[in-house]
Amino acid sequence: MSVSSFNQVTVSSEALQHNYCLLRSRTAPTGRLLAMVKADAYGHGMVEAARSFRGAGCRDFGVAELLEGVRLRKSGIEDNIYIFLGFDHANSELFFKYNLIPVVFDMASIQALAKESSRQNKAIGIHLKVDCGMSRLGILPEEVEKYVQAIDSMEGVSLAGICSHFPRADEPESSHTVEQNEKFIKLTEKIPLASTLIKHTANSGGILYFPESGCDMVRAGISLYGYYPDGQDGVARGKKKTLQPAMSFTTKVLQIKTIPEGAGVSYGHTYTSSRQTRLAVLPVGYEDGMSRALSNCGEVLIRGKRAPVCGRICMNLTMVDVTEIENVLPGDEVVILGSQGQNTITADTIAEKMNSISYEVLCQFGNNNQRKYHT
């Protein structure tokens, strides 16, 4: 007999494929769309999400760490897998063993791959990451020529692609992304045989708001999972052709109790009842990704109505006020993320209360709970 948790994350494969196809329609016919499935596909399950995207036509996948790439390859994904976060040089052989594509940003990594290439007697193509304004990973634009020459002089490694990343593509009105894209294009034009390279810099914001930044390949992240990089503003811009959130998160009512006026609730009594109050106690807490930042401000859906969180969220328990909701009983479904009746709670609305972003909400819920998938 299998035992399941009260708390259940459900992921819609149909929504994932819808989002992939919508984003694909926003890219050039000759361009490629890489699906970022790092961070366990933003909490949606790396392997399952990759299979869904592959079913919609995806043939390029991106992860952060080498370990993720190996796992994805072992799961049966036979397409291109890019490793974006670098690697321990002692593990260089794994790129050759599992046919993975390294994205590099320092000379030592290139030299480690060249050394392993010689040992394996097998060539490898690499992608060079350039920092055009993110001030994160990547070599500086003025270093590109030196790196290209060094790669060209090494046996066994070749430059297959060049990439960058947009820090402000979620701001459609900003000129920064246009300027950064122009800088990227100009520096690639100086590279010998640039036309043979795969050039990519556009993220979700680039795909949605700056189509001219498409280059040869784009990299979709949060948008694949149904959310706009600029939150609710993006939903309004989407109009008829909108992304579909793929994740929902539910739990159940564990206990119903009535407390008198003036009763303190949860640790520290940060909430005190102003009237006789019916509380529903839920078996979900910060262990399950229900952030303490939602204490006294979060909401859930019960019987299609919003129930506010009362008091501090505990490790495994949360209390909500159901005084205005009739006939709530132990065992009733509670929606933390998703729709019930005419009401919906999205990762954007939760993130606003947490002073965060949808990315964090999805990762917290998805990576801390049992997941199931449906078409």
Q: Label the overall shape.
A: elongated
Beta-strand portion reads 15-25%
Average pLDDT level = 96
The side-by-side strand order for the widest beta sheet comes to 8-7-6-5-4-3-2-9
Radius of gyration, in angstroms, nearest whole number: 24 Å
Using the coordinates above, name the CATH class of the largest domain.
Alpha Beta
What is the CATH superfamily of the largest domain? Alanine racemase
**Mind describing the biggest β-sheet?**
8 strands, parallel
Number of domains: 2
CATH topology of the largest domain: TIM Barrel
| Number of helical stretches of at least 4 residues | 12
What does this structure look like?
By secondary structure, this protein is an alpha/beta fold. The protein folds into two domains: 12-238, Alpha-Beta Barrel (TIM Barrel); 247-374, Lyase, Ornithine Decarboxylase, Chain A, domain 1. It is built from twelve helices and 20 strands. It has helices at 13-24, 38-42, 46-55, 66-74, 93-97, 107-120, 144-153, 176-189, 204-209, 232-238, 347-354, 358-367; strands at 8-12, 32-36, 60-63, 80-83, 101-104, 124-129, 157-163, 198-200, 217-220, 247-252, 255-259, 264-265, 271-272, 277-282, 299-302, 305-308, 318-321, 333-340, 343-345, 370-374. The mean pLDDT is 96.
Which helices and strands appear, and what pairs or packs with what?
Blueprint: E1 8-12, H1 13-24, E2 32-36, H2 38-42, H3 46-55, E3 60-63, H4 66-74, E4 80-83, H5 93-97, E5 101-104, H6 107-120, E6 124-129, H7 144-153, E7 157-163, H8 176-189, E8 198-200, H9 204-209, E9 217-220, H10 232-238, E10 247-252, E11 255-259, E12 264-265, E13 271-272, E14 277-282, E15 299-302, E16 305-308, E17 318-321, E18 333-340, E19 343-345, H11 347-354, H12 358-367, E20 370-374
Parallel strand pairs: 1-20, 2-3, 2-9, 3-4, 4-5, 5-6, 6-7, 7-8
Antiparallel strand pairs: 1-10, 10-18, 11-14, 12-13, 14-17, 15-16, 15-18, 18-19
Helix pairs in contact: 1-3, 11-12
